[in-house]
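Subject: Cytidine deaminase

B.,
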Amino acid sequence: MLDAARQARLKAYAPYSHYLVGAAILDDQGRIHPGCNVENVAYPQGVCAEAGALSAMVLAGSTKVRGVLVVGTGGAWITPCGGCRQKLREFCAQDTPILTANDTEMGPSYTMAQLLPDSFGPEHLNT
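Prediction pasted inline below.
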């Protein structure tokens, strides 16, 4: 996952912020789906790396995330933005690991529940 996220980050399209982000999602079939951020001059029309990776996963026929890794630019650790946390929640269990990394090393890890506590998910609509 780390190599896939780092490679995806290098292909990000970020001409405005110059902040490249790569993500990789491990699905329930053991496949890795990378994604990168794609900015647009008409903010907020861009796409986050996590959203791109989720789209790739769904396109490949999966709807269950077993792990997520996000790589940012430079030495700082980044976690998914609020919108991506909710997008991930659609496909993640509460204990799904969300890992962080930068160009050279792994960073802190979290669970979906830690990043989006008391969240609203698909099970709330299953009555």
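The chain is about 25% helix and 25% strand.

T.
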